[in-house]
Amino acid sequence: MTGKISKAISAFMLISCLGFTVPVWGAEQTVTKPGGITYEMQDIEVQYAASFTAYPVGNTAKPTVTTSVYDAVYSNAAKPLQVLYGVVKLTNMLGNFMTEEFISVSDGVNSARGLSNGFGPIYNSNMRIIGRETEFYTGKKLAEKSVVKDYSDGVKAIKLSREWDAFGNPIRFGIRFNGQFKTESDPFFQKLTETSYEIDLTTLRYVGKNQVVQP
Fold first, then answer.
1. 212: in domain
2. What total number of domains does the chain contain?
3. 33-35-39 Cα angle (round to 5)
C-alpha cells in the first residue's frame, strides 16, 4: 500500500513540474447561454487521474466526507472535500492537441469543477522556488466532447498548491477558493471561499489513465 501511495505522489509531483502547451482551439460556436463559447473537440483523452481528500485547515479531527443532505444544507461547519485531479489531452477539429489539468471537488452533496487557466511558482522568503500553484476556473469545463467557457455568473477559481523541500519531497499540498460573484446563486462555492484546505497525502489514490472519469 505504501508503494502505491508513493507512486501516486511521485506522479502528482511530476505533473506539478510539467509545462503545458499553448492552447490551439478548434472552431468556436456560441452556446445557448449569453456570454458562453464552446470549442468542439475531436477527442478528449484522460492522461492521468488521482483522487484524494482535503480537510479544512485548523480541523484536528478528520471526519468522513458528508453524505447527509441535512448536514450539507444546514451545517455551517466547513467539511472535508473529496477531490479528483488529473490531466486530459484535447484534440481539436483540426487535429492539433494540447493538455489541460482538471479538478473536481465535492462535499458529498455539492460539487464544483473546472479546467486549468494558468499556473505559477511558489517562492520562499529567499525567493527560491519551492512549489507551484495551478488555478482552475469553474467557468471553463468539459461538456461531452467540447470545452465550454462561460463566465456569465462571475469568475470562480479553485487554486491547487504543491510545495516540496530541497530534496523534492512533498511537504504541503493545499486547495483554496476565491471568486467574483455576479449573483448569489452558488452558496456552496461562496462557503468554500471562507476556508483553506490541506490535502491529506495518505488518501492520495491513483485512479489511472484512459479511464472513464468525469473531469
1. no
2. 1
3. 85
- The whole-number mean pLDDT for each consecutive block of 10 residues of the chain, a chain of 215 residues, reads 53 47 49 72 92 83 49 68 94 92 94 93 90 94 90 91 86 91 78 93 81 46
16 inside domain: yes
- In which domain, by residue range, is 142 found? 2-206
Q: What local confidence, expressed as pLDDT, does residue 71 receive?
A: 52
Radius of gyration of the chain, Cα coordinates, nearest whole angstrom: 18
Residue 149 lies in a domain: yes
Does residue 157 fall inside a structural domain? yes
Amino acid code (one letter) for 37: I
**Rounded to two decimals, what is the model's pTM?**
0.77
Q: Going by C-beta distance under 8 Å and a sequence separation of 6 or more, which residues neighbour residue 127?
A: none
